[in-house]
Each structure stands twice: as structure tokens, then as C-alpha cells.
Amino acid sequence: MQLRAVDKVDHISPTDFKSGYYETKRPLVITGLAKQWPCYEKWNWDYFINVVGSKEVGVYNNIKSDAYTPINTADAYMKFGDYLQQVKDGPLELRIFLFNIFQHAPQLVHDFAWPEEYMKGFVKKFPMLFVGGEGSITHMHFDIDMSHILHTQFMGRKKVLLFPHQEQHKLYRKPWEVLSLANFAHYNDQFDYQNFPATRLAKGYEVILEHGDTLFMPAGYWHHMEYIESGFAMSLRAMQADLGGKLQGVWNLFGMRGIDTMMKKTAPIWWYNQKKEKIYQLADREITMAKK
After folding, report:
1. What is the end-to-end Cα distance of the chain in Å, rounded?
2. pLDDT tens-digit profile of 15-65?
3. Among 58, 131, 133, 148, which is 20 to 30 Å from 94 by CA?
4. Sign of the four-CA dihedral 30, 35, 37, 41
5. Domains and CATH numbers, the chain
6. Confidence (pTM)
7. Cα atoms in the 13 Å half-sphere on the side-chain side of 274
8. Are 55 and 66 in contact (CB under 8 A)?
């Protein structure tokens, strides 16, 4: 993998953000944005336990999905407060994602501001919370709705690996899915280049997010996250400005995902083998092109 650091700024003007990052689809970390919001000091484990601790949530382990697994299927369910207490107590390889905590505690929306000076099209009904215990992993994927994301980290540190959408075949994207066949867990210490050689060609970014850092992830960006310490993050999603980007998100949500789920239920092994063959064909083509 050919990685470089994500640019970091304390503040940035809307004009510079749009010309340097939004329009060019480059990631950026803004370290000072969330420090202006009440949630920067207010949100912590005990606060969430008190506010929404009784709500049941789906939790996810570190095991990658297989040929039988429908996308976003929870591994277990538990009360949010019980989960957060376990996260506080020590390492826990369980995470929560796409939890709309604001439906259960609407007062929380007053603890941050929508940064519309940077982009329009925010989906204001769905600000989402992501929580992970120390050691938990979000495997390599891109967001199915193809939205731009402002992802603000709270509490502990988190390592993020990022790639532009066009690197998908070097990352061994599964056809009809948003996931990579390769396992990037602990990629700094170990990675299976023997079985996934095209990843050596993939050009991307690496960053460690700390409390209050806001990461701009352009639409379609691949991302893999590892919780160095227990922490949580909030994602604000904004639809792409152009019609083509919006339509791609709609197709992914209601066409591509539906077809893949149906095939996993009716012919999972055949479907998996067909996709795996296509994955390696496309990756080998990337290798061949790089040699020319």
C-alpha cells in the first residue's frame, strides 16, 4: 500500500475547503471545528449512559462477513448502557455503528452545529453515532449511500485507513457489495500481500483521529478503522451535489443491496464463488496495467 498522511488544519475557510478538498475529493482533518460545539466537553460515557442507557442496540464483533452474511447483520443485542459500561471497563472487541441516538434523545442535536458553510445537502434526520471498544475494528468498506461524511471523534484515539473510490479493484472489492475481500486488520503489522498482491499498488491515506478531530471523507471513500482506545464518533452525512452521485447512492441502497441479499439467501456458495472469480480478474488487470 502506498500511503500518505491526511492533511490536518485547525481551521479552514469555506472557499479553501471547497476548492482544495470538497471539489477535488481529498480527505481532510479539521481539528478545531468540534471544539466550538457544546458536545466537545459535554459528551462522555456517563452522560450517554444516563440519557439513553436503557435503549437496546445491535453490537458487532471483529469477524469479517462471509458468503452467508447479509450486510449490517448484528452479532448480538444489549442495552446501550450495559455496552458502554463494558467499553469503559477495558478492551472490548465489540462496536456499534449507525446508531441514531438522536431519535431517542432529540435534545442532543442542540449540542453541535451543522457546518453548512462547508457543504450543503446534510441529511439532518440521520446524524449517526459510532462506538467501539479498545481493539474493535471496522473492516474496509465504503458507505453504501455514497454521501460525503464529516466524522468527528470523541474520547479515545482511532486509526483510519482511507482510499479513493477508484482504487476499489486494487482493494479486492466484492462485486455487488461495499466490502473488500481482503482483511486489513492490523495492516501495519501483518497483511496478506501473497493472496492480495494488487493492494501494493493502492494509493491512499492514513491518519490517527483524536478527541475533537473531524475527518472529511469524500463520497465513496474506502475506509478501515481500528480503535486504539475506546471511543465514539458522530457522522454527519451530506448528499452529493450532482444528480449522478445521488442516483448511485439510491441504486446501491435499493438495487444492488437487494440483489446481493437475495442471492446470498438463495445460492450463497455459487454467488460467492462467482464474485471471487471476478474480484481476482479485476485485481489481476490492475497489476497487468501497472506493468505496462
Report:
1. 19
2. 999 999 999 999 999 999 999 999 999 999 889 888 888 887 777 776 666
3. 148
4. positive
5. 2-291 (2.60.120.650)
6. 0.89
7. 10
8. no
